[in-house]
Please model this.
Amino acid sequence: MVTARQEGQFAKRIGKALAKQRIARNLTQEQVAAQLGVEQETISRFERGATLPPLLRLIDLAAIFNVPLDALVRAGSARSIDQAIDLAGALDTLSEEDRVWVLGWFTDMCAKLAAAADSKR
Model:
């Protein structure tokens, strides 16, 4: 069961993803609002995480930003599998040599963070 706190955190992560997509396309909140037929304040509330966009709005926003719907939803997810998919996408942009280096660094950082968390318990 999803708690109100989890839903709020999800809304904030989705909001950040929406703002990132909008800014990457040099669009204003007003321009996005006009395309959706809503007020600018609605877009602001989505981006701040004050309101979680309904699914049909997310579909429209994904179309405006020309990204798959799952990219927006994954951006809001705290599940490690969804985060791993995003990491894999970032790795795909690198050379094989750079991917190997990043993977080694990432693995080392995870081990250090896990050890630090264990020592706090």
About this structure: Helices lie at 4-24, 29-36, 40-48, 55-65, 69-76, 80-91, 96-120. DSSP finds seven helices and no strands in the chain.
